[in-house]
């Protein structure tokens, strides 16, 4: 055979071998899932699972680990969505690029007062504040102690002094305040007694399975509709959060189509009971 023909034949025979070598190899035993051509290893998943669960993943139930794996794969899908976005997303770090991508996708930069007004008008029930009472409590393990505290209050001893001296409430040192509560927020066994009190009024001793209570209504606020101008700051935050959550959901769904996910259950040290498709390792 002529040298030239021999060399050409050698190149032809070598070409298929080169093609095979350039293809990605089959997932090794350390790979527990694939996201398109991205291999997810057991070590990288267990690192995130350990942080999320606060324990060695081997001590966590298969159901919880499966849920954590699904969450991690969603994070990988979102990572791929950001990397493949066009136009490319600017940012010095992955976290910055992710925020910029989601802000762009959610339209946060173009969120206008007209958008806020439309949301406000569409859900008036969200901006109707019910009547509220600001309540504080004294808590006692025995009826005798509760009666003694109530006597001191009626004799003129300031509430804060009685609370600090004798109440067993967790925040007794600061007066036992429970914050602003609507009527539906109050425990059923105390609702009528508390709701009937005027501002500055103190209840009698009220018994409960876990102790004896004395309540004081510090303030009463009437029900009212919150005007748009007052609602605007919170409305902007809540609408941005809703749009961002929808942007994450849509981005992951699109990335899942572009980068199919498969879990290699045979490579996992636990039975997988999550929601992603399973693949049998070759």
Care to describe what's here?
By secondary structure, the protein is of the alpha+beta class. The protein has 2 domains: 27-128 and 226-282, Triger factor/SurA peptide-binding fold (Orthogonal Bundle); 131-222, Chitinase A, domain 3. Helix content is 48%, strand content 16%. The chain has 9 helices and 9 strands. It has helices at residues 3-22, 42-53, 62-83, 94-106, 113-122, 143-154, 159-166, 188-195, 228-258; strands at residues 31-35, 38-41, 128-129, 132-140, 177-182, 206-208, 211-221, 224-225, 261-263. The strands form 3 sheets. A 4-stranded antiparallel beta sheet has the order 5-4-7-6. Helix 3 (62-83) packs across helix 9 (228-258) and helix 4 (94-106) packs across helix 9. It starts with a helix and ends in a 19-residue tail after the last strand. Residues 1-24 have low confidence and may be disordered.
Brief rundown of the structure:
With 282 residues, this protein is an alpha+beta fold. The chain has 9 helices and 9 strands.
